[in-house]
Inverse folding.
C-alpha cells in the first residue's frame, strides 16, 4: 500500500522504509520553534531535563510575537526569560523586536523552512509551513522542550483527507475563502488527527500567500497538518528565500485516503465565518446586515503582501467609515517596508487605518485592539471563539482581506464587488 | 490507580480560549492559571473555579481542547485539582499536551453522553472502566496504547526523556 505525502516525509525522518496510519514513531526534527507565550514554559521544562545545550543552535527558532512589543510587566518578564535562554544557549534564530515578525510569516520568509522538512512549533498555526511541502505541526511547550534537547519528537502517523481543488477562483475569492469554505463543509473536527492534502489543477491559480493561508487554518478543521505538493511556484519561492537543501516528496499513486473532496474553485464566493466557531460559514450573499465596530487585517493567516495589496487596492482613495476602528498589522518587517515602498502604507494611513508594527496582538485578544462588551469585529485572523478578541460577550467574524477592506469603508460586512 | 470525584460537564468544541483565556497567558504559574480556568465558559450553569475540589472530574463531548497549542490549558485544569478529563474526542494538540504533562484523559462516547453535571464518578485507569456511582452504571473507555501508558507511568514526557538520556 502506498503512502501519502505526509507519511513519506515522516518515514524518511524516522529512518523507516514505510509507515502506516496509526503507527507510533520517533522522527528527527529540522526545526523546533516557539514564541513568547509558549517558550517560557518550554524553558522551565527544558531545564528539568538536565541537558546543557540545545540539540542544534541553527535548528531552534524563537520569535517573541504574541504580546510584543511587551504589553505589560508580566509579558516583559516572559520575554526576558526567552531572551536570556536564547543568549545563553546560543540560539541563532532568535528574533528580537525590530527583526521579529509574526512567526508563521517570518520563518518561511527567512528561509528557515524548506520542502521535505519536519517542523514542530509550540504554536498551533505551525501547520502553515505545509504550504512549502514540509510536514509541520503545532505542539505544546513540553514537546518543544524535548525537541530542543533531543532533536526528535513522537508522532502518531496520521491518515489523510484529500482535497482536489479544480478550476480558477473568481477575482475576489482568495485562499482564505477556500479554507473557510472547507472548514464550513467538514466542521471544526472534520480532519481531527488527520493530514489535509491539497492537490489538483486549481493549485496553479493559487499564490504562495494563498497556500500559506490555507495550510495555516488546517488546525481550525482539527487537522494535524495541511500540505501542498511542491511545484514551480514553491521552488521559485524557496530559491528566493533560502540556501537550505530541500527534498521533494510526492504522495504515492496508490496512497489511501479516509476521504476525497472535489472543490470547484470557480463556484466559490467570498466567505465569512460567524461567531463562535470557524465552521459557522456563510457566503457573502447570505450574510445579511451585520454592523461592525472594528476591522483587523493581519495575523499569521492574512498578514502577507498579497493580503495587504488587495486591501490597499480597495481602500485607495477611500475613507474608513468614521464609526469604525481599522487596525492593519503587516506580518514582518520586510512586508512593512514593502508596503512603504509600494505606497500601500500611505493608502492605509490616509484612509484612516492604524498601520503598525508586526504583532499577533488583537488576534488572540492580547493587545492592540481588544473588544469591549457587546462589540463586534470583522477580522482576517483565524479564530472566532468566545472571548477570542476581548470581552467574553464580544463577537468576531472571520473573512478575507478583500471583504475586510470593503467592510471598513461601509461599516457593515460588505462584498468587495459592491465597492 | 483510581480517581473519584464530582463531575463538571461541558458540551462540544470546548476551546483553549475558554479553558484559559489569552488575557491570562502573561503568566505561566499553574496556580495563577488555575484561578481563571474555564472563566469564559459563560454558558455553563456551574461556576468552575468557585466549586472545583481536588479529585473532581471533567466530562465533555466532542473535540475538547480545540484551538491553540497553549499547554497552559491542561496545566490550568490539572492545577485546579481535576483528576481526569473524559470526552468523546480530544483535539490533537490538547491530547498530546495532556499526556506529556501527565493529566489523565480518556475517550469514551457512552460516558460523555450519559454523565451529567454533578454526578459522582470513579475512573479506574488500569482497566479504563468508568463507574457512574450516581446513576449506578459503568462504561468502558478506550485503553491507551502501551507507548502512552509507559509515558504516563514514567510521569510524563520530561521524566521519560531523562531516562532515555541516562540523566535519571
Amino acid at each position: 500500500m502506498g503512502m501519502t505525502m505526509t507519511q513519506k516525509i515522516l518515514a524518511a525522518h524516522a529512518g523507516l522504509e514505510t509507515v502506516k496510519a496509526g503507527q507510533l514513531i520517533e522522527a528527527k526534527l529540522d526545526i523546533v520553534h516557539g514564541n513568547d507565550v509558549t517558550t517560557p514554559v518550554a524553558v522551565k521544562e527544558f531545564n528539568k531535563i538536565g541537558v546543557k545545550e540545545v540539540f542544534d543552535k541553527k535548528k531552534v527558532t524563537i520569535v517573541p510575537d504574541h504580546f510584543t512589543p511587551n504589553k505589560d510587566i508580566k509579558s516583559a518578564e516572559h520575554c526576558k526569560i526567552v531572551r536570556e535562554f536564547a543568549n545563553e544557549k546560543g540560539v541563532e534564530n532568535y528574533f528580537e523586536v525590530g527583526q521579529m515578525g509574526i512567526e508563521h510569516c517570518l520563518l518561511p520568509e527567512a528561509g528557515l523552512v524548506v520542502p521535505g522538512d519536519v517542523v514542530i512549533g509550540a504554536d498551533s498555526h505551525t501547520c502553515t509551513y505545509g504550504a512549502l511541502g514540509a510536514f509541520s505541526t503545532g505542539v505544546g511547550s513540553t514537546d518543544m522542550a524535548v525537541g530542543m534537547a533531543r532533536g526528535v519528537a513522537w508522532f502518531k502517523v496520521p491518515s489523510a483527507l484529500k482535497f482536489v481543488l479544480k478550476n480558477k477562483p473568481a477575482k475576489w475569492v482568495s485562499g482564505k475563502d477556500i479554507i473557510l469554505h472547507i472548514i464550513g463543509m467538514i466542521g471544526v473536527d472534520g480532519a481531527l488527527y488527520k493530514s489535509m492534502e491539497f492537490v489538483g489543477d486549481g493549485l496553479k491559480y493559487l499564490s504562495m500567500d494563498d497556500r500559506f493561508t490555507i495550510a495555516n487554518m488546517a488546525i481550525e478543521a482539527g487537522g494535524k497538518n495541511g500540505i501542498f505538493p511542491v511545484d514551480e511556484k514553491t521552488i521559485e519561492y524557496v530559491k528566493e528565500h533560502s540556501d537550505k537543501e530541500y527534498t521533494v516528496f510526492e504522495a504515492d499513486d496508490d496512497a489511501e485516503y479516509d476521504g476525497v473532496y472535489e472543490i470547484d474553485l470557480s463556484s466559490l464566493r467570498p466567505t465569512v465565518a460567524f461567531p463562535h466557531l470557524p465552521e459557522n460559514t456563510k457566503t457573502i450573499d447570505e450574510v445579511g446586515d451585520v454592523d461592525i465596530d472594528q476591522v483587523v487585517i493581519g495575523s499569521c493567516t492574512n498578514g502577507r503582501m498579497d493580503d495587504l495589496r488587495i486591501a490597499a487596492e480597495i481602500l485607495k482613495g477611500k475613507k474608513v467609515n468614521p464609526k469604525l476602528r481599522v487596525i492593519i498589522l503587516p506580518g514582518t518587517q520586510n512586508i512593512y517596508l514593502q508596503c512603504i515602498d509600494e505606497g500601500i502604507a500611505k493608502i492605509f494611513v490616509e484612509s484612516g487605518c492604524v498601520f503598525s508594527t508586526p504583532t499577533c496582538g488583537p488576534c488572540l485578544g492580547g493587545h492592540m485592539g481588544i473588544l469591549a462588551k457587546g462589540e463586534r469585529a470583522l477580522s482576517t485572523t483565524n479564530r472566532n471563539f468566545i472571548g477570542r478578541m476581548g470581552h467574553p460577550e464580544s463577537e468576531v467574524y472571520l473573512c478575507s482581506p478583500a471583504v475586510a477592506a470593503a467592510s471598513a469603508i461601509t461599516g457593515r460586512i460588505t462584498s468587495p464587488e459592491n465597492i | 490507580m483510581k480517581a473519584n470525584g464530582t463531575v463538571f460537564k461541558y458540551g462540544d468544541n470546548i476551546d483553549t480560549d475558554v479553558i484559559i483565556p489569552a488575557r491570562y497567558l502573561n503568566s505561566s504559574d499553574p496556580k495563577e492559571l488555575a484561578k481563571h480556568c474555564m472563566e469564559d465558559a459563560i454558558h455553563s450553569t456551574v461556576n468552575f473555579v468557585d466549586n472545583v475540589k481536588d479529585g473532581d472530574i471533567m466530562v465533555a463531548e466532542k473535540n475538547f481542547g480545540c484551538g491553540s497549542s497553549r499547554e497552559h490549558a491542561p496545566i490550568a485544569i490539572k492545577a485546579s485539582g481535576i483528576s481526569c478529563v473524559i470526552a468523546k474526542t480530544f483535539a490533537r494538540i490538547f491530547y498530546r499536551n495532556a499526556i506529556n504533562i501527565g493529566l489523565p484523559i480518556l475517550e469514551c462516547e457512552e460516558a460523555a453522553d450519559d454523565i451529567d453535571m454533578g454526578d459522582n464518578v470513579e475512573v479506574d485507569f488500569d482497566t479504563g472502566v468508568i463507574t457512574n456511582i450516581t446513576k449506578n452504571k459503568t462504561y468502558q473507555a478506550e485503553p491507551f496504547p502501551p507507548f502512552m501508558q509507559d509515558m504516563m507511568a514514567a510521569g510524563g514526557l520530561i521524566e521519560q526523556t531523562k531516562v532515555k538520556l541516562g540523566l535519571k
About this structure: Chain A is about 30% helix and 20% strand. Chain A touches chain B through 52 residues (CB under 8 Å). Chain A has a mean pLDDT of 98. The longest strand of chain A covers residues 160-166.
